[in-house]
Amino acid sequence: xxxxxxxxxxxxxxxxxxxxxxxxxxxxxxxxxxxxxxxxxxxxxxxxxxxxxxxxxxxxxxxxxxxxxxxxxxxxxxxxxxxxxxxxxxxxxxxxxxxxxxxxxxxxxxxxxxxxxxxxxx
Length: 122
Fold this sequence. Notes:
- The protein has helices at about 10-20, 60-80, 80-100, and strands at about 50-55, 105-110.
- It has a two-stranded antiparallel ribbon with strand order 1-2.
- About 40% of the residues lie in helices and about 5% in strands.
- It is built from three helices and two strands, in the order αβααβ.
């Protein structure tokens, strides 16, 4: 059994050893999901590198973080019984149907929204 601590990728030396001793397949327990074909499915966050801000001044990442915290509580409670699960699914579907068509108010800040400074820093 492989008894090493690794952060995700095998070193070249280990891979060469696998080839030398003719290991055809690395056991799945040593492969992190992020290195598989399904790694990008159901990603709960945006991979965009843009700061998106709403009319209220809150960023999209702030809103997402707060929504994820609250939805995690629903998931935890909803997974404890069949009745709670069914109610959670029903409630989530209902909320989604209510909010899906609300117009977006979030986007990149416009250039004129940023503070302008002169060379003296004032």
